[in-house]
Design a protein that fits this description.
Strand content: under 5%
CATH superfamily of one domain: Tetratricopeptide repeat domain
Largest sheet: none
Number of strands: 0
Shape: globular
Distance between the termini: 22 Å
CATH class of one domain: Mainly Alpha
Helix content: over 70%
Length: 250
């Protein structure tokens, strides 16, 4: 079964944490540029985000949050070498900024340095200061999934769920790995379990609707996909649901 991009690498969710952490501690000029960069990044304007984060760094080059923001913008622009340098600089400035290792690991894997990337995820997972070990475990699972090492992928996705059973990415990762292993019904059951715990999680509902569609359970699929389209009409989940609804048998 197709695995949607929304359930793959987990890095951008840390933008909110960036805003909350950096604003009280930085010079005013740097704050303005930094927050402008975040706005551009959220709206998909990667080039403008890069310019804004670079301006923030010109004001305060020793701020690791500014370098993380720049790294995320570089990733959106597919400038992976530059992203790696920015994330490494953020860690160099603050070795306790564990969250950046998830970003660095992702950039390394996407650039083809898979073993180095997985090593960063593992460092983050094993660090007692990591506020989101479920994300580090998820990203390890994703790396192994892409390598078709499904047993390792399943193990890490399950570890992610054990660390935070209310994290939707772990349920989706487990399900898609089970699908890849030919265990379709078990995968669908995992998504249903996730929705029992997180009934308002649109991403899970989309994954279940898509799974039902692909096994020919069109009535169930239509109901779930229509609910996704209604709750996220302009977002990526809603667009994917509408795309699938347009393919239903007449």
């Amino acid at each position: 079964m197709r695995r949607t991009g929304s359930s793959r690498w987990r890095v951008a969710g840390s933008l909110v944490a960036l805003v909350l952490t950096v604003t009280p501690a930085t010079a005013q000029e740097g704050e303005v540029s930094f927050n402008a960069g975040l706005g551009h990044l959220r709206d998909g304007r990667a080039d403008l985000a890069i310019e804004a984060f670079e301006d923030a760094i010109d004001e305060d080059g020793e701020n690791p949050y500014f370098h993380k923001g720049l790294g995320l913008a570089y990733m959106r622009a597919n400038r992976l070498k530059d992203a790696i340098k920015s994330f490494e600089k953020a860690i160099d400035l603050n070795p306790y900024y564990v969250d950046v290792r998830n970003d660095l690991g992702t950039a390394l894997v996407l650039s083809g340095k898979r073993e180095e990337g997985k090593a960063e995820f593992l460092k983050a997972f094993n660090d007692a200061q990591n506020p989101t070990p479920e994300i580090s475990a998820h990203n390890l699972g994703q790396a192994f999934f892409e390598e078709q090492n499904y047993q390792q992928a399943l193990s890490w996705f399950r570890t992610s769920a054990q660390r935070n059973e209310r994290y939707p990415g772990s349920h989706i990762g487990i399900a898609h790995t089970l699908f890849a292993m030919g265990q379709t019904e078990q995968g669908i059951a995992q998504l249903e379990l996730g929705l029992e715990q997180l009934p308002k999680e649109t991403e899970l509902l989309l994954a279940l609707g898509e799974a039902c569609y692909e096994v020919g359970r069109f009535g169930e699929a239509r109901q779930k996909l229509e609910a996704v389209a209604a709750s996220d009409p302009a977002g990526p989940f809603g667009r994917r649901a509408l795309e699938l609804l347009g393919k239903f048998p007449k």
